Request: fold
Amino acid sequence: MNFQRSTKDTERHTRIITDHLKAATFIIADGIKPSNVDQGYVLRRLIRRAIRSARQLGLEVDQTFTPQIAEAVIEQYGHVYTNLKEKQETIHSALETEEQQFGKTLKEGLKQFEKLLNELTSKRVNGTDAFHLYDTYGFPLELTKEMAAERGLNVDEKGFAKAFEAHQELSRAGASQRFSGGLADRSSQTTKLHTATHLLNAALRKVLGDHVYQKGSNITADRLRFDFSHDEKLTPEQKDEVEKLVNDAIEADLPISYHVTDVQGAKSEGAIGVFDERYGDEVKVYVVGEGANVFSREICGGPHVARTGMIGKFTLKKEESSSAGVRRIKAIVEGGAEEVEVAGEE
Ligand SMILES: [Zn+2]
Reply:
């Protein structure tokens, strides 16, 4: 072994551990939790990268170490940044939970990664495989890239982004069971927009036909974006009708609940969803409405609002082409409940 190089590696890993966990400590103090979306994803990446560096330095894995590093950060900066001290417990438990979860998935994921390398026919890890590592084993893309780089390989990032988009709803569904509470962004506005997405999906099928399938979904705090299979531009009448159907469903204040079933059960009750082998044995089906008045039935990980009336007014902002045979809609909701109640199991 080259001593020079391993010293350099040690320094690099040590710096990664301290820098990343320092940043993570501050981010958690700001109220962010590790998750697979937005800032939560950045946070998760920082923590997981630090954990991986610690493993590479040969750290024993029987107990968690990230909370101790955070304690040191709080010790050092707490008198200036007083919120660090106020959030000490939150920081501790968020890091501990994330580290424990990652420990479990890392082991399995590394096995999977090695297997994948043995099957490689080029110097490139394809996007679908990278996404599988992310979706199933919680490997951030950065981690896969780095592991690949260590072996002189690269990762098809465009392919990853594509797979990510196509399975965004899906990964929420599957992974929410794997990382308890980690994935979904549960703020009220995104929950409202998420339920509105289901209403939109159902309304499009009612207006345009059963050939409409979800091709992608992306929700930020400001808007929803929904891609679906359809060949032509929507007419102004169709747009009006879709918007009206969604708003009628909101005004009807329909209850929303979910039940757990298997893929076959979901199919036979007519639930829509991106049927895929990545679904686990159990899936959640969210139902909007009840009895004869069911508006939508869709496989999804949630969360959703408890009643459609909480969503507020739905406005279709834009309808455009996304790619061949796929249209894209952007829409907003306004004036709904400030704090929503979340739909529960029926
Ligand atoms: Zn959904």
Remarks:
- Residues 1-5, 173-185 have pLDDT under 50 and may be disordered.
- The pocket of zinc ion is lined by residues 169, 194, 198, 300 (CB under 6 Å).
- The longest strand covers residues 312-323.
